[in-house]
What we know:
Blueprint: H1 3-13, E1 28-30, H2 32-38, E2 42-47, H3 58-72, E3 77-83, H4 87-99, E4 102-109, H5 123-130, E5 134-139, H6 146-157, E6 162-164, H7 172-192, E7 198-203, H8 207-219, E8 224-229, H9 234-252, E9 262-264, H10 277-290, H11 299-311, E10 320-325, H12 331-334, H13 336-339
Parallel strand pairs: 2-10, 3-4, 3-6, 4-5, 7-8, 7-10, 8-9
Antiparallel strand pairs: 1-2
This protein binds pyridoxal-5'-phosphate.
Amino acid sequence: MTAEDASVLAAKLSAFPRLGLASLPTPLEPMKRLTAHLGGPRLWVKREDATGLGFGGNKLRKLDYVLHEAVASGADALVSGGVVQSNSQRQVAAAAAKLGLACHLAVYHGRLAPPAPEYETSGNALLNRLFGAHLHDVPWTGDRNAAIEELGNRLRREGRRPYFVPYGVSSPLGAVAYASTIAEIAEQSRALGIRPAAIVHCTGSAGTQAGLVVGGAVAMPGTRIVGIDIDAEPERVRSDVIAYARAAADLIGTSFDEDDVEVVAGHAGPAYGVPHAATIEAIRLAGALEALPLDPVYSGKGLAGLIALVRQGRWPGDTDVIFIHTGGAPALFAYQSVLGI
Ligand SMILES: Cc1ncc(COP(=O)(O)O)c(C=O)c1O
């Protein structure tokens, strides 16, 4: 990792226009108390929860690039979707409010049974309403994008000009956008004088990891990207990461090694959206030791995976490992009664 590698990546990404919706760069901070508690490598956190708009999160970085296309196309509405407590649709709703666009969301019911009475109304569900989104309840069929496309077609028939934002904002352009996280981490690591052994994060609809893999191949070739599966579908996640990463690499004119795509299974708990004891332990540790609000669906499970890998001795004590806090804290309030906090 050299200054040159980071600037090569930054130059490649500068060809893609952004709206400036996200507050970037996000901080890279030490987690000294969690490091001391676990007794393993030096742990750092990249604060992607601090991207700003509408409580922030990793999707905002993707939306910054993807919605440039929406605005340029003359769209008058964004159409997207996700489960009731989707952080992705909350960030789409926030961006739409800021841009003065209508927002229509397909809200999937049935991917998981509501884990707490407050699940349907609090957290992200409340924020979606606050940001003025129109919510359309639909059954979960397993097809992440079909109901969003149907909703978009309906709006088009009604004379609107909707722009389709895929589930999780995962697309080739979304992955290109997320490679910009690596440009920041490379620069921040250089300034701190560290050479991270790994970057660990939770992975679901795969665009985040695809961007990290592609960006990493250009600017941080010595750093392993480790995705923690939170969907309980590690094979599906890995093949989606590879597909988005291939498309993103083509867009920015680079390549990566598929053997470098690592998706770690075993930390998703009983099912997507259902926190288990290790998730709750990770949330409690991050809160009590680092004042970091993690969530029960994504970042809590991501940190649970990292803690398990540290306890297995994966990295020596004199190495540096970065955890990406991808956001999601509003969901804490929608799960309050099952977390026992
Ligand atoms: C808080 C949070 N972290 C991580 C992810 C996973 O990112 P991706 O879907 O790009 O794999 C999501 C996606 O919904 C999320 O909301």
